[in-house]
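Q: Sequence in, structure out?
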Amino acid sequence: MKSERYRRGWEKLRQIDENAGERLIDSLKDIAPDLARYIIEFPFGDVLSREGLSLKEREIATVSALTAMGNAQPQLRAHIHNALNVGCTRQEVVEIMIQMAVYAGFPAALNGIEAAKAVFCERDQMSGDEVSDD
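A: Exactly. Output:
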């Protein structure tokens, strides 16, 4: 039986990316299934389910933090996708990276731009468009 935190987290995750929960559970089921459950319960069930910030604002904060960290490229790419899914435009994502140049340095901003470029390209290939999510 799944906890209320898990159910709440699962629903929040589906709002952000309909298939992310299945991908997450699938990627960890053989090695760390509890980690997948923790991720669904805590970040999504507890933190992202709080009032006070919209999902778009939360993804802007997350993309900013991951860009500044500079050592979480797979997670940064996933959250750039999420930001686009919840209403950020490509231009807003680029502006986040430019803003991070001031506070996290040019290397972090350049790495963030590369992650954004990869996400934009991936989305273009999936949709067959060259300019979407704007």
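The longest helix spans residues 106-127.
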